[in-house]
Every structure is written in C-alpha cells, then in structure tokens.
Design goal:
Layout lengths: L2 E5 L3 H12 L3 E5 L3 H9 L3 E2 L3 H5 L4 E4 L4 H12 L8 E4 L5 H13 L3 E4 L2 E2 L2 H6 L2 E6 L2 H14 E8 L3 H29 L4 H8 L7 H4 L23 H17 L5 H16 L11 H4 L10
Parallel strand pairs: 1-2, 1-4, 2-3, 4-5, 5-6, 8-9
Antiparallel strand pairs: 7-8
Helix pairs in contact: 4-5, 8-11, 8-12, 11-12
Bound molecules: nicotinamide-adenine-dinucleotide.
Nicotinamide-adenine-dinucleotide binds next to helix 1, helix 4 and helix 11.
Length: 301
C-alpha cells in the first residue's frame, strides 16, 4: 500500500481521500480548514500539520483545490522540491489550461512526473468512487497515476499531453452549460405552446433533440428520471461552479481564437443567474427558473 498526500479535503476531496484510505492506502491529509481535517481523520486519513509535511515521503500527491492560484501556491511552496523525487503528482482540481501546463512543466524541470486529472461527476460521485477522470500528461505519468485514480473513479481516460485533461473538462462543460440552457428554454416554450411536458420529454428523448441535459438531468420537476429539479434544485452541480467552468472555457477559447457564441451566451446567462440573481448555490439546472421568470432572488442579509 502506498503513502499518499492528499491536499484539499472539501466537498470533493473529502470523499476522494476517504476512498483512498478505505482501499488501504496510508493517506496523509492537509487542508486549511480544521473542519475538513477533522472529517478526513474520522474517515481514515492521518492529519498533517502542513502541505509540506503531508508530502514528505509520499509516493503520490493528490490535490483537489478551488482554482489555479491555489494549485500554483501549493505546488510551488510545498510540493515541488519537497516531495520525494519518485512521487507522482496528480492535480484533480478544475483550473485553467495555462496554469496546468505551467505547473506540470515546473514539476518536470525538477524531475517529477505530474498529470492534470480534473473530474466529471459531483459530490455524490466523489463519495461513491464513481468519478470520470480526464488526464493530461505523458503516457508514463498517466500509467503511474492510473491505479490511484481507478480507486476514486469509474472511468480514467488519457486525454493527451499536459493540460489536455483541463481542456477536455472545459470543452465538455461548455457543451453541458449551453445544452442545459437550450433544454430549459425549450421546455419553457413547450409549456407555453400547450404541450404536456412528460409527453414532450417522451418524444424529444427519442428524437433528434435528445441530449444528456434532457434525458438524464431534466430541469423540469416530475418529468423524466429523478433529478435535482425534484428537490427544488438542491444538491447536484452548483450553478456557481458551472459559471466558473464557463469562464475558464471562455478564457481558453480566447487564448486559441476559437469562436464560441453559444458558450459565451451560456456564460452570460449563468453569470446573471448565479451572481446577479443569487442562484449560485442552486443546481445548474435551476436556471430554468430564471428563464421561465419564476425565480425569486434570495434577500441579501
Ligand atoms: P471546496 O471549496 O469544497 O474544497 C476545496 C478545499 O481546498 C477547501 O476545503 C479549502 O479549505 C481547501 N484549500 C484551499 N486552499 C488550500 C491550501 N492552500 N492548502 C490546503 N487546502 C486548501 O471545493 P470542491 O467542491 O471540493 O471543488 C474542488 C475542485 O473540484 C474545484 O476545482 C472544483 O471546480 C472541482 N469540481 C467540483 C465539483 C463539485 O460538484 N463540487 C465537481 C467537479 C469538479
């Protein structure tokens, strides 16, 4: 069994670290939050006093942090040059492609193998060990990361060179954001045209309009399979995180001069829902309530 440093034990990292510990690995955990550390300890990890302490003698280092700046801070202050030379470094956070490439290059220059390995799947998939990992890095680094990722996920896919995991993630989520908005406006229009929405679902899910946002994650309560719509849009994938990913997608699109009008429209709409109208904590399918005009923005204290 391996010694694994796990840094960032929040909503996602908490479940992921617990799955590694449950598989018998020696998990050394660090987070800035005392609560997160207490929860990790209760689920089989050993607490480290700092990120630098966690990575000492670790064979693998896994990070699950909020954004690129946290990843840069942690890798440059506590991982590169501190972890053993043989350690495989695995960043599972969703961050910008440029920072991912930079950190992997800095790690490589110091003799480490590192991959970017962002995930698809939310908190429930992190708990269940059923995430999908999209991995960027050399074939050798991918093979070294794979056994650890397989414990935390149901699918581990080599996306390509360093940064390709992040690129695949934001391309996927740009498509998801745009298709969710399209699904929401379609159901609102169908209702206004007098269609029964379950009947429309039955037709469209077998016709050329079908997509994951409708068939698996229908934003209308009581229509299709059970989804966050049936729980007042609680749980699931927060609109604030969809907005984060759409912003990363737009930044990446600009960097390569890609024309993404639908992604841009989705970003504008999610910014309005998640920020201006206070819907950031709701599941991202809750944007239907902005589109049908039934959303009541929470009162600010
Ligand atoms: P979170 O905010 O719940 O957890 C992040 C953790 O990192 C926090 O506990 C925080 O204290 C810790 N942290 C921040 N800076 C640190 C530092 N310097 N050293 C140690 N710990 C530090 O976030 P999350 O929901 O777990 O998401 C983590 C990543 O996964 C993000 O990049 C997010 O975009 C991505 N993601 C989230 C979901 C989801 O559904 N929540 C789904 C897919 C991907």
């Amino acid at each position: 069994m391996a010694r694994i440093a796990f840094i960032g034990l929040g909503n996602m990292g908490g479940g992921m670290a617990a799955n590694l510990a449950q598989a018998g690995h020696d998990v050394r955990a660090f987070d800035l939050s005392e609560d997160a550390l207490l929860r990790a300890e209760a689920r089989g990890a050993a607490r480290a006093a700092s990120a630098a302490e966690a990575v000492q003698n670790a064979e693998a280092v896994v990070t699950m942090l909020p954004a690129g700046k946290h990843v840069r801070d942690v890798y440059e202050s506590s991982v590169i040059g501190t972890a053993s030379a043989g350690a495989i470094l695995i960043d599972c956070s969703t961050i910008d492609v440029a920072t991912a490439r930079e950190e992997i290059e800095k790690a490589r220059a110091s003799g480490y193998a590192m991959v970017d390995a962002p995930v698809s799947g939310g908190i429930a998939a992190a708990e269940a060990g059923s995430l999908t990992f999209m991995v960027g890095g050399t074939a050798e680094a991918f093979e070294r990361a794979r056994p650890f990722l397989e414990i935390m996920g149901k699918a581990v896919i080599h996306a390509g060179a360093p940064g390709a995991g992040q690129a695949a993630k934001i391309c996927n989520n740009m498509l998801l954001g745009a298709s969710m908005v399209a699904t929401c406006e379609t159901f609102v229009m169908a209702r206004k045209l007098g269609l029964d929405l379950q009947t429309f679902f039955d037709i469209s899910s077998k016709a050329s309009g079908q997509c994951w946002s409708m068939t698996t994650y229908c934003p209308v309560p009581g229509v299709g399979p059970e989804t966050p719509a049936d729980r007042d849009y609680e749980g699931g994938f927060a609109a604030a995180l969809m907005l984060k990913d759409l912003r990363l997608a737009m930044e990446a699109a600009q960097s390569v001069d890609a024309y993404t009008p639908m992604g841009g429209a989705a970003e504008t709409l999610y910014a309005r829902f998640a920020e201006a109208l206070g819907g950031g904590g709701k599941d991202f399918s809750g944007i239907i309530r902005m589109i049908d005009d039934s959303w009541v923005a929470p009162e600010t204290p």
